[in-house]
What we know:
The protein has helices at 13-23, 42-55, 79-82, 104-114, 129-137, 167-171, 173-180, 191-194, 201-208, 213-233, 243-250, 297-308; strands at residues 3-9, 28-35, 63-65, 120-124, 145-151, 186-189, 255-260, 262-264, 275-277, 289-295. By secondary structure, the protein is α/β, with parallel strands linked by helices. It has one domain: Alpha-Beta Complex (Inosine-uridine Nucleoside N-ribohydrolase, Chain A), CATH 3.90.245. The strands form two sheets. An eight-stranded mixed sheet has the order 3-2-1-4-5-6-10-7, sandwiched between helices. A two-stranded antiparallel ribbon has the order 8-9. Strand 1 (3-9), helix 1 (13-23) and strand 2 (28-35) form a beta-alpha-beta unit.
Amino acid sequence: MIKNIIIDSDPGQDDAVAILLALASPDLNVLGITCVAGNVPLSKTSFNAKQICELAGKPEIPLFAGCDRPMGRELVTAEHVHGKTGLDGATLPEPKIELKTTHAVDFIINTLREAPKKSITLCPLGPLTNIGTALQKAPDIIDNIKQIVLMGGAYFEVGNITPAAEFNIFVDPEAAEIVFKSGIDLVVAPLDVTHKALTNQAWVSELKAQNNTICDVVAGWTSFFERFDVEKYGTEGAPLHDPCVIAYLISPELFSGRHINVEIETKSELTRGMTVADWWGVTDRPANALFLNDIDSEGYFRLLTTRISKL
Ligand code: RIB
Ligand code: CA
């Protein structure tokens, strides 16, 4: 059954691979891509989204610019990981397609109001600012959302931007709190699972062997953003975070996790943005998210190569 999705993203090389996977998948109907400030400022994330859709040969995908800063904080970006453009590692042509003039938050609200109930899944791949703002501005859409499958948070893996917090949640903890307290069916792909989805040289070589421009670009992006994680964690490859969200929608059997309570730290500066995951059920706080912690990594990278090489 085809799933209707809205991707909310801060491209970012890993976001870009996630978008390519979605656009290469006939079982997903991408209703639109909404851009948010995160890895790089909004002007760059929305520019990058245009380049990615043109690379995929899908200029018809509606693209929207959203919030240019978190709901209640200064913006923190991650050029140290993704490079100045956010898509360092490959050179893409100047895009011709234009962004829609509707604000991303209004696109999300209007689309959900007009669609059949529970027919749309939201797929946030960056800070949750657009989603949190939409839920705050139009609480009536909460009941219309089928599911939110997001990349963000960490528990056993602890933080990647501070000792306590993962980047997407750290950037906008207030927005994350709105999402995690909404009661919407949540699936969370935290660092606990994405750190088991490590790229490797064999996969990059397999991509290059496809003799396919898109695969060459993905190989270039991967080689670029790998350097940060390889240096930091001493691993052979880098975690391909965001495509886990799309892969879960296509093949949920690649993943496993636990339905638990997850709350967001918004008060302390020391642990700002920490996802406090009650993995061992030590509180009576109600479960509000499927918190993924394992992946069939071979199957994941096979899915990526098979689908993206056919784009
Ligand atoms: O912490 C990893 C997340 O932060 C990924 O979504 C990456 O693209 C950045 O947004
Ligand atoms: Ca991202």
